[in-house]
Design brief:
Layout: H1 13-64, E1 68-72, E2 89-93, E3 109-111, E4 118-122, E5 129-131, E6 142-148, E7 154-159, E8 165-169, H2 172-180
Antiparallel strand pairs: 1-2, 1-5, 2-3, 4-6, 6-7, 7-8
Length: about 180
């Protein structure tokens, strides 16, 4: 009878430890990039929400032939004074130009608070955006600056007097103002 020769298959301890070390190194190198990606996605979602609300408010003003305002709101009913929008906002008809949605009229839309750690501020003095029946936005150009509090990145949404909405980069001074809570 011949002795059977069997060989063991598998990994040696050295091979396993080397593989784990390489996987750990790759994970450590990839984590900052993943955090940066998550921040960019969160900023993009906030910019998309603001842009969509601006387009919706402008379209409502044109279609309904009346003043429509977009303003920050914590309770989703009343406009709140201030330049910070991260707690949410509302769109409503404001025929009496008192800076609040008309009593008894249903709101056009309401946006809930943004992701924690996201800040959105507008240009000083632009606590509301009012669209007229011709689609124009009252006042001077408005800039929404969107930033994540733990990063050094920001993006901006700009509303021209004509009512045109566009994305733009944020200047260093706008980023700093966003991070500190005011422009």
């Amino acid at each position: 009878m011949q002795p059977s020769s069997t060989s063991a298959s598998g990994f040696t301890l050295t091979e396993l430890l080397t593989t784990l070390a390489i996987a750990g190194l790759l994970a450590a190198l990839g984590m900052p990039a993943l955090g940066s990606l998550v921040s960019r996605v969160t900023d993009t979602r906030a910019a998309t929400a603001i842009t969509g609300s601006l387009h919706q408010a402008r379209a409502a003003a044109v279609v309904r032939g009346t003043r429509v305002l977009l303003c920050p709101s914590r309770d989703r009913v009343h406009c709140r004074a201030g330049d910070d929008w991260q707690h949410g906002w509302i769109i409503g008809i404001d025929t009496d130009a008192d800076g609040q949605p008309d009593a008894g009229a249903p709101l056009i839309a309401a946006q809930a608070a943004l992701h924690a750690g996201t800040r959105v501020i507008t240009s000083r003095g632009r606590g509301q955006i009012v669209f007229h029946p011709n689609g124009s936005a009252a006042g001077s150009n408005a800039r929404f600056t969107i930033c994540r509090l733990h990063t050094r990145m920001a993006t901006a949404v700009v509303v021209a007097n004509s009512g045109r909405v566009r994305l733009a980069g944020a200047r260093p001074d706008q980023l700093q103002a966003c991070l500190t809570g005011g422009q």
